[in-house]
Amino acid sequence: MNTSHLRPPLRSPRITAPAIALASALGLATLSACAAGDDTDRSPKAADGKLDVVASFYPMEYLAKEIGGDHVTVTGLTKPGQEPHDLELRPRQVASLKKAGAILYLKGLQPAVDDAIKQSGNKNVADAASFTSLKPHGTEVDGHHHEDEHSHHGHHHAHGHVHGGDDPHIWLDPAKYAEVAKGVNNTLAKADPAHREIFRKNTDLLVKKLEDLDKKFADGLRNRASDTFITTHAAFGYLAERYGLTEEAISGIDPVSEPSAARIVELHKLAKEHHVGTVFFETIASPATAKTLAGDLGLRTDVLDPLEGITDKSKGNDYIEVMNSNLTALQRALGTSTP
Question: What predicted TM-score, i.e. pTM, was given to this entire model?
Answer without folding.
Answer: 0.79
